[in-house]
Automatic annotation (TrEMBL):
UniProt GO molecular function: ferric-chelate reductase (NADH) activity; ferric-chelate reductase activity; metal ion binding
PANTHER family associated with the record: FERRIC REDUCTION OXIDASE 3, MITOCHONDRIAL-RELATED (PTHR11972:SF148), NADPH OXIDASE (PTHR11972)
Enzyme class: oxidoreductase
Reactions this protein catalyses: 2 a Fe(II)-siderophore + NAD(+) + H(+) = 2 a Fe(III)-siderophore + NADH
Cofactor: FAD
Keyword Cell inner membrane: no
One Pfam family per UniProt: NAD_binding_6
EC number: 1.16.1.7
Protein name: ferric-chelate reductase (NADH)
Recorded superkingdom: Eukaryota
BP term (GO), one: monoatomic ion transport
Length: 694
């Protein structure tokens, strides 16, 4: 290891320690927040020092305590990931690193397999328990405060009965607890977040955390709203429901936010989401209404507790918007007989992504608003100028795409916009002695990218490549054509393969599949169509750290100037400006800072790195030749008709110190594999589910 590598390693360790210190300090604040010690001592002391400043006023305390650390944390995470990307240490085969990973492998084992939470690992259960403990701790402290301070005497002062006064107090505390959950709601859906990547998570694997927290948010704020409605009815104050207070809590704004939240919540339940996906998709854009009127409801000072996660989401969302404005160069496609198409895009060689990454695709000729995620099947190392996705016709959108491409030979061009790719920052497949990949139907797609990436490593590296076993289940023999996508069209890579494919056709007893009916299509993209390129350039993490830190500093400067020279001279503690006015100023300041810094970063990167590439990348034409992947893999492929794979028999008894078991497919298949690899299974089986639900 050179001196430069050592300095990077030291810097990474220092950043990691600093991030842990910030995280621990934030956790302490969250634990202490519902206590009287925090309210009477800590908060009073901080407000005495910061709350009376002419630059920030009362919100200054929450800016420093809640928002600043949670913007600094992802900024440091970006720098850490940038340095990690630059290091050349082979962590996969490092003995020390491997021992550390083996010790942590038990924490990744499935603990819960069936139930409303889905498949939950030991680590996930631990963090879920800690989060629920924080929530229960907060509610306990809040309710204790309610029943101690609210007495018959204090209730009589306001003309309320004891139960009415306590109901009023409980409603407030439920809202405070909902604010705690809301603070964590947007982190899992920030696709390019460094916080997720730094702990080895991806946005698609984190969706379930967003679902869990979202349910908690809606349960708490709905209870908060219902309690107040009951209170107002019992005390003959129904008129309060239409009140919009100038300087305090706005009831009407809270009700608008609650209605928007309930509409979103209703469509999230699986029975509705799967049947009416478009309703789910479109109603989820009400998050803008929800957050806007939530801020109006509680005021900007209290909103700053939950705004950091939303701030990071806004940065991520605007970067996605900038990327989606361009049409990308779609150069070819293959139409398979199983209602499946493969789309091949031109890619800038500078764009690198990991196996199992996903790409969000919009085709305006099908829908001008809908975006759909698809797993990338190509390898950025093996195919530096091509990016491919496979799309199975399962819903309305994908079925229209298949019908469009399969029914006509006259399509010269297809307008496509993309967002992504998004995926893990690194993969550790080489730490396993063997890989077993279990798929159902189109669940084979992430494994195609894994196989192709390992093919590249086997041809360019001296590392020991794990033996691969692909167990794939299909309904019909026509689905076997998906196997043709495993390898790129090349005849000189089969020698690098150590793979066995066990295919199962469950609904047919013999083959009805014609191998020669794959339909190739070539497109003629416009000159304005661009190859898929990294939105923030090759140093994307460093650029994102710059955007986060500089936008926050600009936001602070704007707020400081406006407060000092516009609000304070007139207001001076007399509340002449309404709470909504101050909230709008803060929200506009956030918007201006994010839009300005993100736009400058994206357009400067585009000018510096993205050169015009008018030539169609050679070798993208998917013509089926004599050396097709199907023929190259025929010797290592066994096909079983009329039966399902016996996963217990295939997985139990596998030899090797570390056997990576990956599954992507229907829910029952994932649960079955998870059960086999659960906490009581042989220690060498290490489970990972790649499937996700949007």
């Amino acid at each position: 290891m050179g001196l430069g590598e050592m300095s990077k390693e030291v810097t990474m360790k220092v950043i990691k320690l600093l991030m842990m210190a910030i995280l621990m300090g934030t956790i302490v604040i969250w634990i202490m927040m519902p206590t009287s010690t925090y309210r009477k001592i800590w908060l009073t002391s901080m407000r005495a020092k910061l709350g009376k400043t002419t630059n920030f006023g009362k919100p200054g305390v929450n800016l420093l305590v809640y928002m600043f650390p949670m913007i600094l944390l992802p900024s440091l995470g970006c720098i850490y990931l940038h340095l990690k990307k630059q290091t050349s240490v082979d962590q996969f085969r490092s003995g020390v690193e491997r021992k550390k990973r083996e010790k942590c492998s038990a924490l990744r084992r499935p603990m819960l397999v069936k139930g409303p939470l889905g498949i939950v690992t030991v680590t996930e259960l631990m963090f879920l328990t800690m989060f629920m403990a924080l929530l229960l701790w907060s509610l306990t402290n809040y309710f204790y405060f309610t029943f101690v301070t609210v007495t018959p005497q204090s209730a009589a002062i306001h003309g309320d009965k004891l139960w009415e006064a306590r109901l009023d107090s409980v409603a407030v505390r439920l809202g405070l607890a909902g604010n705690i959950c809301l603070a964590f709601l947007f982190y899992p859906v920030s696709r390019g977040s460094s916080l997720l990547a730094a702990v080895g998570l991806t946005s698609e694997s984190s969706i379930k955390y967003h679902i869990w927290v979202g349910h908690l948010v809606m349960i708490l704020i709905t209870s908060h709203g219902v309690c107040y409605v009951v209170y107002w009815i019992s005390t003959n104050q129904v008129y309060q429901m239409l009140e919009w207070d100038r300087t305090s809590i706005s009831n009407l704004a809270g009700e608008i936010a609650l209605v928007a939240g309930l509409v979103m919540w209703t469509t999230t339940f699986p029975a509705i989401r799967k049947r009416f996906f478009e309703a789910f998709y479109y109603t989820h854009h009400l998050y803008i209404v929800f957050m806007l009127f939530f801020v109006f409801h509680v005021g900007i000072s209290h909103s700053l507790i939950s705004l950091p996660g939303f701030y990071i989401f806004v940065v991520d969302r605007f970067l996605r918007f900038l990327q989606s404005r361009n049409n990308v160069k779609l150069v070819s496609a293959r139409v398979l007989p199983c209602d499946t198409v493969e789309l091949n895009f031109s890619k800038n060689p500078m764009l690198m992504y990991s196996p199992t990454s996903i790409l969000f695709v919009k085709i305006p000729s099908i829908s001008k608003l809908q975006w759909h995620p698809f797993t990338i099947t190509s390898s950025s190392k093996l195919e530096p100028e091509k990016l491919s996705v496979m799309i199975k016709g399962q819903g309305k959108w994908s079925t229209k795409l298949y019908q469009m491409l399969s029914s006509s030979d006259q399509i010269d061009r297809l307008t496509v916009s993309i967002e992504g790719p998004y995926g893990p920052t690194s993969t550790d497949f080489l730490r396993h002695d063997s890989l077993v990949m279990v798929s159902g139907g189109s669940g084979i797609t992430p494994f195609i990218s894994i196989i192709r990436d390992l093919i590249y490593l086997s041809s360019t590296s001296t590392c020991q490549i794990p033996k691969m076993t692909l167990i794939c289940a299909f309904k019909h023999s026509s689905d076997l054509s998906m196997l043709d996508l495993i390898l790129p069209i090349s005849s000189d890579i089969s020698s690098f393969l150590d793979i066995q494919i066990k295919a199962f056709v469950t609904r047919e007893t013999e083959s009805t599949h014609n191998k020669n009916i794959i339909k190739p299509l070539c497109f003629k993209p416009y000159v304005s169509d661009q190859p898929i390129s990294p939105i923030l350039g090759p140093n994307s993490w460093l650029c994102l750290a710059t955007i986060l830190s500089s936008s926050f500093m600009i936001f602070i400067i704007i707020i400081g100037i406006i407060t000092r020279y516009h609000i304070y001279p007139i207001d001076q503690g007399l509340n002449k400006y309404t709470s909504a006015y101050k909230s709008i100023i803060y929200l506009l300041a956030i918007s201006v800072s994010v839009v300005a810094t993100s736009s400058i970063a994206v357009f400067s990167n585009k000018k510096q790195y993205c050169t015009k590439n008018d030539q169609v990348v050679e070798g993208l034409s998917p013509l089926v030749t004599e050396s097709s992947p199907q023929q190259l893999l025929s010797e290592s492929t066994s096909i079983h008709y009329g039966e399902r794979p016996n996963l217990n028999k295939l997985l139990l008894g596998l030899k090797g110190l570390s056997v990576g078991v990956f599954v992507c497919g229907p829910r029952k298949m994932r649960q079955e594999v998870a059960k086999i690899c659960s906490f009581r299974s042989p220690e060498n089986l290490q489970f990972e589910s790649i499937s996700f639900s949007w």
